[in-house]
C-alpha cells in the first residue's frame, strides 16, 4: 500500500489483527530519494473466527463428548474454548398444564485442545 503525505507521521488503517508488517519510507522533492531501512511492527490480537465442524463424538444419558476444528483465522493465540449449551425439559405441572424449563450453561474449558467431555448433565433434559 502506498501512502503520500507531507507529515512526519501517519496512521495506516485497515490492517489485519495479529499480523506483522514491514514499513519503508522515502522522501520526494523533485524526485524520489532512497528508501529507509525497514521497520517491523505488529498489530494486536483480535477476535478469532468461529471454530469449525462441531460434532458429537459420543453421548449417553448424562455425558456428551464434543470435537471441533480450530478457527480458520486465529487472529491471536487461542487460550481456551467456551462451550455454551441450552437444555430443555418439558413436563406437565400439577394443574395439568404443559410447561417447559430451560437452562443455559457456559463452560470455560481452560484448554486449547479441540475436544471436551461435558458430564453430569441432567438425564431428563434434552440438549
Question: What's the gist of this structure?
Answer:
This protein is mainly beta and 127 residues long. It is 0% helix and 38% strand.
Describe this protein's structure.
The chain has 127 residues and is mainly β. The two termini are 49 Å apart. 0% of the residues lie in helices and 38% in strands. It has strands at residues 20-23, 39-42, 52-59, 64-69, 82-92, 98-108, 115-118. Strand 5 and strand 6 form a beta hairpin. The protein contains no helices and 7 strands.
List keywords for this structure.
127 residues, mainly beta, three-stranded antiparallel sheet, elongated
Parts with pLDDT < 50 across at least 5 consecutive residues: none
- Main β-sheet: number of strands, strand sense, barrel status? 3 strands, antiparallel
Radius of gyration: 26 Å
Approximately how much helix is present in the residues? under 10%
Structural class: mainly beta
What overall geometry do the principal axes of the alpha carbons give? elongated
> If helices are DSSP runs of H or I spanning 4 or more residues, what is the number of helices?
0
Q: Tell me, rounded to a whole number, the average pLDDT.
A: 91
End-to-end separation in angstroms reads 49 Å
Total DSSP E strands: 7
Share of β-strand residues: 35-45%
Amino acid at each position: 500500500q502506498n501512502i503520500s503525505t507531507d507529515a512526519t507521521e501517519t496512521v495506516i488503517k485497515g490492517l489485519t489483527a495479529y499480523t506483522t508488517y514491514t514499513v519503508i519510507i522515502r522522501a520526494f522533492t523533485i524526485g524520489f530519494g532512497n528508501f529507509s531501512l525497514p521497520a517491523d511492527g505488529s498489530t494486536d490480537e483480535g477476535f478469532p473466527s468461529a471454530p469449525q465442524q462441531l460434532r458429537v463424538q459420543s453421548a449417553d444419558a448424562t455425558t456428551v463428548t464434543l470435537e471441533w476444528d480450530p478457527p480458520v483465522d486465529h487472529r491471536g493465540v487461542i487460550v481456551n474454548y467456551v462451550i455454551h449449551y441450552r437444555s430443555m425439559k418439558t413436563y406437565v405441572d400439577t394443574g395439568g398444564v404443559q410447561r417447559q424449563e430451560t437452562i443455559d450453561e457456559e463452560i470455560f474449558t481452560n484448554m486449547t485442545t479441540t475436544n471436551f467431555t461435558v458430564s453430569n448433565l441432567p438425564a431428563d433434559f434434552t440438549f
